Structures are given as C-alpha cells and as structure tokens.
Amino acid sequence: MCTSITLASKEGNVFFGRTMDFAAGMFGEDPGSPMSIVTIPAGAQVASQLNPWTAKYAAMGVGSTGTVCLMDGVNDQGLAGDLQVLMECEHASASDLQQRNLTAVLGEEFVTFVLTHFASVAEIKAHINEYGLLDQPLTQGNESVETPLHFTFADTTNSAVVLEPTDNGAFKVYDSIGVMTNSPEYNWHLTNIRNYISLDKFDPKTTKKVSERVSLDPIEAGTGYGMFGLPGDYTSPSRFVRSTFLANNLDPFTADNGINQLYSVFRTAMVPRGLERASQDDPLSDCTRYWSGYDLNKKEMYVQTCRGLTFSAKKLNPQSQEVTYTDIEIDNLVKWVD
Amino acid sequence: MCTSITLASKEGNVFFGRTMDFAAGMFGEDPGSPMSIVTIPAGAQVASQLNPWTAKYAAMGVGSTGTVCLMDGVNDQGLAGDLQVLMECEHASASDLQQRNLTAVLGEEFVTFVLTHFASVAEIKAHINEYGLLDQPLTQGNESVETPLHFTFADTTNSAVVLEPTDNGAFKVYDSIGVMTNSPEYNWHLTNIRNYISLDKFDPKTTKKVSERVSLDPIEAGTGYGMFGLPGDYTSPSRFVRSTFLANNLDPFTADNGINQLYSVFRTAMVPRGLERASQDDPLSDCTRYWSGYDLNKKEMYVQTCRGLTFSAKKLNPQSQEVTYTDIEIDNLVKWVD
Amino acid sequence: MCTSITLASKEGNVFFGRTMDFAAGMFGEDPGSPMSIVTIPAGAQVASQLNPWTAKYAAMGVGSTGTVCLMDGVNDQGLAGDLQVLMECEHASASDLQQRNLTAVLGEEFVTFVLTHFASVAEIKAHINEYGLLDQPLTQGNESVETPLHFTFADTTNSAVVLEPTDNGAFKVYDSIGVMTNSPEYNWHLTNIRNYISLDKFDPKTTKKVSERVSLDPIEAGTGYGMFGLPGDYTSPSRFVRSTFLANNLDPFTADNGINQLYSVFRTAMVPRGLERASQDDPLSDCTRYWSGYDLNKKEMYVQTCRGLTFSAKKLNPQSQEVTYTDIEIDNLVKWVD
Amino acid sequence: MCTSITLASKEGNVFFGRTMDFAAGMFGEDPGSPMSIVTIPAGAQVASQLNPWTAKYAAMGVGSTGTVCLMDGVNDQGLAGDLQVLMECEHASASDLQQRNLTAVLGEEFVTFVLTHFASVAEIKAHINEYGLLDQPLTQGNESVETPLHFTFADTTNSAVVLEPTDNGAFKVYDSIGVMTNSPEYNWHLTNIRNYISLDKFDPKTTKKVSERVSLDPIEAGTGYGMFGLPGDYTSPSRFVRSTFLANNLDPFTADNGINQLYSVFRTAMVPRGLERASQDDPLSDCTRYWSGYDLNKKEMYVQTCRGLTFSAKKLNPQSQEVTYTDIEIDNLVKWVD
C-alpha cells in the first residue's frame, strides 16, 4: 500500500515524502488512472464533487489527471501531506454528520481540501473536529469508488499529525512520529514499535562470551547486527517499523542533502513489481507506482515513477492562474559522463 | 558491506549491479580514497603492483582514481563482475603458490585481471584453477592494505559464478544464483535460503480459519503477507535472503526496463547513512557509498552515489587509447517539469 | 510475566491453565510470598481487605498462603480463571466508583470474588458492568502493593472472557480466543495475531521452484517450515502469538488426554530461570514460578513448580467446611521402573 | 525431528537429554515400533545385524523393544549420547570401507556400539577415525530401513562431541557446544548462531530515546526483550538457536536441580502434536514422542512420553546379567495432595 515519512535537517528544514503502492497502473504500465502533477493556485475554484470551494492557499502535488484529487502535495505555506488506505476508515451519512454539526468532506478530496484551507498542523488540529467523512463515492468516468483512507500532514515547524476517520466519520487525531503506513489504526503501530526497543544502530563488533561453552564472533566484521530482528516484508506494520527505525537512526544531515536523505530512507519501503500478487492468474501486482518527496521550506517536489530512474521536479509557482496538469517523466534520465 | 545481483530480461539481456557499502568516504563525504569510472582500453598496459599485463579486452567500471583496481566493471565481451569483502578469504605465500603451480594474483586487482583476460564465465571456470591469491598487501599512498575478498562474474548468457579464495589462496568455485553478499562462505548462504522455503509472492487475501475458535483476517487488504518472515536488517545473510527473494519474484520485464528493474531490487539492500555504527564516538558509519548497474549487452554502466540522486552513465568506448578516469556526478540531477 | 490458555477436548470437556512468571520466589527458591493451594468452601466468609463476603460457590486454586487471594482457580460450577499483570490497568477512587454506581473490588481479590460469586462466563458478562477496581493497595505484612491486573475466565461450555479494568477502573470485556498474556491491551493482541496469517501447520515437503534460477529444497525433510516466522522470545506479544498458534493447531484429543495436551502447549510459554534479568547484579530473574492446569469438568487442578518435576494434584472437595491451605510439592516425583 | 542438550551444574555434574521427534508412534499413540528402556550389561553379547560384539561397558537407554538399537543412552562410565536424523549422512559400501581400512558399523546400532565400547569423549575422539557407516539397511520385521543419522556424546568431564558421517561414511568430528539438532551439518549451525550475537539475557527496562522524535517504553515492564529476534518455529536451525541461547543463559544451578533445569530448557524444543503435518489427509504429525534426560554422574535416566505427564526413572544396574526391556509409563503420575 503506502508509506510516508517526515525528516528534518540539522537546520530544521523539513522534508516529507510518500510511496504510492497500488495494484493498478498510474503511468501507463498497467490499466488505471494516469497521474500528473496538479497545481491549484490560490484563489482558484476547486471543483469538488460535493461543495466546490475557493482555494485560500496554492497547492501542488500528485493527482489524477483532470481532477483536483491530490494523493499528496504541498501548499505555499509549507504544509505537506498525503492520503493512504486505512481499512478501519468509517464514513457517515449526510444527515448523521449534520446532526453532529460536522461539515461533510470527501476522503478522496481531503488532502486538497486541507492544503487549500490550512497553513499549518496547528491550524489543522484547531479545526479538524469540525469535519466528517461523507458516505458518498467519488465518481470517475463510469466508476464510483469510495476508498477507506487516513491522512497525515507535516509543516515547516516539523510538527506532524495523523488524522484517522475512525470515529463514525469524525477524525481521531494523533501526533505523528514522522511515519505513517496503512492498517491497523495508528495507536496500534505506536504500541507495536515498542516491541523493537532492543534494536540499535550500534553493532556488536567483538567476541561475545555467552557462557563458558559458547562465545560468538560477529560474521562479516560486525555490521548490521544492531538491527537484527527488524522485519523485512512489505506488510503495513513491517514497513512502519522499518521506516521508523531507519528514519530515526540517520546521521544528521544538512538541508541541501535533504531530498537525498529522505529518498535513502524510503528505499526500504519501496515494493518491487511482482512481489505481492493475489494469484498466479492475476496480471496485477501491488507495487510502488511512484515516490514523491517534498521540500517544505522550498515548496519543491520530486517524483520518481516505477517506470524509470528519472526524478521529475517542480517548484510551486505562486503566480499560476489556473489549475494545471504537468506530466511526470517516466524514462531513465541519467547524466552521461565522458 | 556489499550486495551484487544479476537479472535477465524476457529477451535474455543480462543486467548486473552491486552496492558498495563501506565505512570510509568515496566521494568526499568522509575521509577515504576517491572513486571514478576507470576505463582500460584493449591493448593497454595494466600497471599491476605485482606483474603488469596487457589487457586483452577493454573494460570499465568503478575504481580508485589513479589506480587500475576496479571494484566492479564490465568488459567489451559483456562480462561483468565485482569484488566484495569475505572474512574467510585466504592468501598464500609466493613460494607456496609456486609449489602448487598457481599464478599469483592480487585480490584488489582481480576484477581488473579477470575482465581484461576473459570473455565469459565459461572461460573463467576453465582457467580459475590456475590462479591463487598472493599474500601481499596493496600499497596506496603511505598505506598498505590487504583486504579479504571474494568475487562474482556474470556474462550475456546469464551464466554467473562466485569465486572464493578459501582454499589456501586457491579458489572455490560456485554456480551463482544471481546474488552475492559477504561472509560467511557461499555454500552457507545457499543452505540458508532454504530456511525460507515457505515464503511466497502470493498473498493470503481472505479469512483464514485456524480452528473453531480462531479465524484471521488479513490486515490492510492482504498485501505482503506472502513474504512474512523475511529478515529486514542489513547483515550479510539477511541482505542475501532479501535480495534473492526479491530478484527471483520479480515480474518478467523487457530489456529497456532492465536497469530500472535492477535498481528496484537493489533498494532493499542499500544501507542508509547512520544505521551501522561502531560506537557513539565513531564519526563513520558503514553505509552504501554507491550503487552501480551494468547493462551487459550494451556495455553501459550507471552509478548513483550516496551524495545525490543523479545516475551517472557511461558506455564503454572501444576506441579509447589509454586508461582514463571519469568523474562520477554527486549532485541531484532531476528533470524540472513545468 | 504470565500466559493462560483454554482448550477443549473432542467431547467438549474444557481445560484451563496458566503460567505464573514473576521476579520473586513462591516456593522458597527466592525471597517472596509462599504459595499454597487455597480451598474456599461454599458458605465460607471471605476475609476481604475491603468488604468481606460469603462464598456462594466453593473454589480452589493457587494463592498466597494465609490469604484468600487466588492467582488462579476453579469453582464447583466449573468456572476457572486467573489474574495477570496488565500495565494499562486503571484504578478509581471510592467516590468516583460510587458516583458511577460501581461496586468497588480489589484487583488482587478479584479472581476469588468472581469464582465465589458466579457460575459461568455468561453470568460474569451479565454483571461485570456493576463493578470497578478500587485504588486501594493490598496490605501483606508490612507491605502495601497495588498491582496492575487483568483477568480471564472460562467455563465448561468453552466460553471464555477477558476482563480489563482499562476504563477508569471499570471493565472492558473481550471474548477470549483462548489465550491471554500481558500488556498491551487485549484488542492489540487480537490485531497482532492477524500479522501471522500466513503461518500454517502444513509443511512444504518438496522442492519449491522460485524462478528459473532458484529452486529450494526443504532442509531436514521438511518439518516445521509452516510455522516459519513465529517469534521465539518471551515478551508478552510473542508468547501470545506462539500460544495461539500452538493451541489452535493441536490435533483433536480426548478428555483423558486433556491435562497432558494442555501442558504440551504451555511448554512454549514457560520461561527458564536466568533468561530475563534486569542486570548483572540483580539476583532475581523473571521466570515461570509455577504452571497450573485445571480440568473444569472434573474440578481438578494440577500444579508444577519451578523447583521440580512433580505435578501436585487436587480435586475440589465440596464437603470442606473452612478455608484450607494445602502444600504444593516441589521435588521430583518420578515413577521408578525396574 | 530431534534436539539434544548438555548442561553442567555448579559442581560440574553433567546432564544430557534429548527429544525424540518423529512421525510414527512409539508408545501406542500411532502405528510404529514400541520403545522400552533397554539395559545391556557389561559382558553381554550384543546381537548386531552386522557383527555381534561383547559389551565392554554396561549401558541403558531408550530403544526399540526387542532390539539392541539405542536411540539414546548412558553407560556405566558416565558417557551418554544419542542419534538423530541428518539428511547429509553418507554410507559407504563394504569394499569401499575395507579399502580405507575402516571398520563397518550400522548407524542405527552406533549409539549402542559407542556406549558399550568407550568410556569417554576423549576415547571416542581417539578412535572414531577407525570407523565408517556401512550402506546396509536395518531389518525390522518385514521392513528394511536405512536412516540418515548423526550422533553426539557427552561425558562427566563436560566434554561433548558431534559425529557426522558426511565424509563418504567416515566421520567428521566437531567439538559440541552442548546442543545438537538436525540438518544441515554442524558447522553450518555453528556459523548460524553467530547471527544472533546481539541477543541477551538482560532486558531493556527503561525508556529508550531513539531520536528527538521517538522514545520507546518497554511494554509490560520490560521482560524478554533481550531475546527479541529469537526464532519460534520448530525447524532444525530454529530449535538449535533457541536451545543454545536458553541453555547458555540459565542461572547456575546445583546438581540436585539438574534434571529439572535440563527439562526447563527442553520445553522450548518439544513439539506439540498436530503442529507439523504433511497434509490434511495425513493422520500422522511429526511431534515429540518422548523426552529423555540423563544424570551422567548418577547413571540415572528419566523419560516423559507424549502420552502423559509421568516421568519414568531408572538407575543403571551394574549387577544385571542380561539384556532387559523395561516398560516406560505413559499415564499421568501426579502427587495427590490433600
């Protein structure tokens, strides 16, 4: 499914990224909705399938071409975030939300909604209890889909929040530890990582005397033993644990190295194609369709697709006047050296 | 330490790559010997610290700037390979090798030696029993170092071999399964992967009834469970297992997607900076300093360093006349899209 | 800490057992309160430190010698259960409980309270919302201790319940899957076992072809691979997972084999002495101090201590007139055969 | 399959035990050859299917009723040992053994052969290179079976050896670390346990600060985390690792507690019935059929079968005149306390 990670540099610059894992194509590699970089200028009318609104802040991110549904994005205030699948997500009916004085929103539009409405995590926290997820599928072409979702947002203060619509459509709010994956609910993961308390970035390098009879020497000069016990599969809890331990044991880095360091942590979460299949006959595999990384201070984004090595990059243009769709490169951009 | 992987496309084109994990810098990020792309033309005199030789085949690869010691490389016949640390490596004295009718070679020069002497894995196998590792340190500046090493080579027939100098300097030869990491010896790893026989690329997707009392539903829609039990740490055996299962469960791919698919498997083996430290006070961390990938059919190579997202690329130039050193880019080459 | 397991035979007879893991002695092996088999007849006055009550049902079980605090036990209706440490346990003040119309009970006396008040799990469920844990330490000698606890009970219908005082002293009620260990809360464990959905009692016995390049043969004739990935440590989540998978993959058994089969599952949960230490200087180790097993239909109990192989056994005597304390044997009772 | 473990008490008394895991019955629970305690007096003629011999030392142990094939046993010199399945075992032809000046022995009779010929591990080591396994099946009733086997022996000096007939029927000899299970070969296991170098008997008990963002508290008061990463399944390598870490992290114990401590370590290796099946239709499960434990100094043995809690015990009787078969109790011997 998906993983998102937030990192801060020595200077306090904040970097946010996510993988998009899915069993449908996004760049022509399999049937599915094509993705672009979607830019929504401040003041633009956002064509919601529920109640259109005017963007207070400009935002850009990866979204379905032709729609305003961002999968992830950043706004001109340096707030960034994404949506991911959460099986425990709940929706409520319009009347139910109304009775509870909750403004109805669509999950698929919620990243866009937040980025075009709020400037910071603090603002989100101050207002999130006014909203609830409506039980209304999103229409795309001939299809109507309602995806169970949760959300995370981070800002330039390195504050980060996880929002889970598990209270009958209303949101449970968690302080983020900088990582979000998929089910189960966030508090389960927060407990789960405590099981790994004995893992460490320091490696046993010398002979360990276990008893009179048994002494153990590290194999291969003692590298990597500190993380022994880290799970290597791609289920949601395992990606959560790996991402948390990698992100939080990185060496300090400077801002100019931020996107590179962010990507270095994500490698462990990126799912190769073919590894997760439903059955022999299923042509589709759940794999990482793209990675996107955001520099929150510079309002820049970087995207690498499953189709090539190229990193497409874009800086948010505050002068833009209308919603635009920019193609993401899928080939192998490399630097030929001679 | 290091990981190497060989993949073949649907058409049978072969791709070979390696990570270089080390506790010293290679691109200015930490003290250490700088690396370049080294090109050795056919007919060139190779300045060995033992017995200089004339290159029969042209070769290029990553090597210490100013030396002819390739860490990994490809030759004009489409043979590629690398060297990696193996603690169980043995060296023999000159007299000992002479008595056994073995030609002395230096481990650090052995990748270069093989790529400039042989055209295929079959040729290597036919001649490897004529050679033995000499117990003579390599001199670099003021330092003399003898590194315990083993080697792997692959060719365009998708044949691959592992060479381990564990027989008192002579080589034990193993058919490669397309993956090599570090200690212990190769046959240990070949047994170890059999422990993981129950892992699969197919995921349980539906409720599993364990007993009258216990039924289990997959969390998060059932992705990734087939690989449950895969180790996630970066020790040599764990990297071997992960790389083997990822490389061998990939969807079939076409040659034009080869470098991208090769890289997609390597992500699991690339060690972020900071994760493997000797102690709190040690400024160095054992991490992936670079990744290199080779297209054996096209005689092209791609290198990504730990310092940036850029992939430097080079095609072997058969017209080259002398040994050359080409800089590897360390910045973040991206495609700005607007 | 502790593990409890409930099993049913083919005929539907029910067996309940628990390990008592603790860092203090219970049978003279280390400093600590000595344990006996405590029998409380129906009609006896139970000397609570809060409000003494009259036992409606006779009960027996393991308890601190001289007290009426059962750690585990069975009553004359075939209801059995135990208490275990749960760090998330909450207590409430007397006034708070009164305001909520909850009858105050002491956690340490709660197993005794339930066994002498209720005949079945259904009865417990019907009344548990009338009670809450009082924030009042238990006095034993010169010490006052308040232990964070949770509880499980099973009856002869093979119904089982877990009671966790995590709602400000009031109880959250969970249908038991037949296993309880320690923290975190029960619903966390119920989610956690779903991570292990790919584990199976059936073993891969033949060569597995992973790819053209890799085929794996089972080592040692293919036994045990179905459970590959099962955690082997003694933390609470790992004991929960192991106990659940072992208990629910047992072959069907007849009632006369019940105690033996119950014990066979418990072996995986019993902690040897020395394995869990706070530090080099700490003379105490958290280990299994005793195992007790109950035949709910026969109202019999069996106890094995950490000090010897002997299983002490006792049948509940309904004719008993007063609270009695019976010594548990600590030696090695064996059958000498000649 | 099987596990054997050797422990020494504070005083230096030595205890040896083994589990017998098998997919056939041994005590009437499934079809199979019934087992007894077999006693062979010094001076007795041992009815080998190859070359009968005279016992130099008296021995007793568990064996097939009516045969002299011991699965495990102890002799009057305090030497004890067992046989277990090893898939890599090799047999040689009579002529081949003869050419190599090796005395032919049958694997199934080899424990008996060693116990009735040798007084110590040192003696075994001094003579083991004189023997080789003959490629001749053992005849039992209408059946002829040749089982691939390896062997371990321990003596009262706490010396222990592993003998593996992997050199074309001749034995490779390993110093034992006190544990033996099944395939692969012993040196593979000796390397494998080094992967677990970071495991420890000391538990993290306090909050661990991983980074500014992430601090981890132990769940359930910090018990068991030191062994996090220990594998929990019943494959041969996993049983080897668990047994090694448990046996070598035990608290020191006195000799009178030896059999009890030996058994406490074995619990982790004992396989419940039903957990390892070939298929749904296979009525047999590979499970622990019996456990036997030996006090080498007292020449006493203890056996617990899969059919009941009883420990049968026997002391080697040096006055015995002929080969005898003693029944092993299968019921639930307990101490009724009142």
Automatic annotation (TrEMBL), chains A, B, C, D:
Which GO molecular function entries does the Swiss-Prot or TrEMBL record give?
hydrolase activity
Where in the numbering of this chain does the Choloylglycine hydrolase/NAAA C-terminal domain appear? 2-316
The record, for Pfam families, names: CBAH
Swiss-Prot/TrEMBL keywords:
Hydrolase
Classification via InterPro entries? CBAH/NAAA_C (IPR029132), Ntn_hydrolases_N (IPR029055), Peptidase_C59 (IPR052193)
Family to which this protein belongs: Belongs to the peptidase C59 family.
Q: What is the name of the protein in this document?
A: Penicillin V acylase
Q: Which organism is it from?
A: Bombilactobacillus mellis
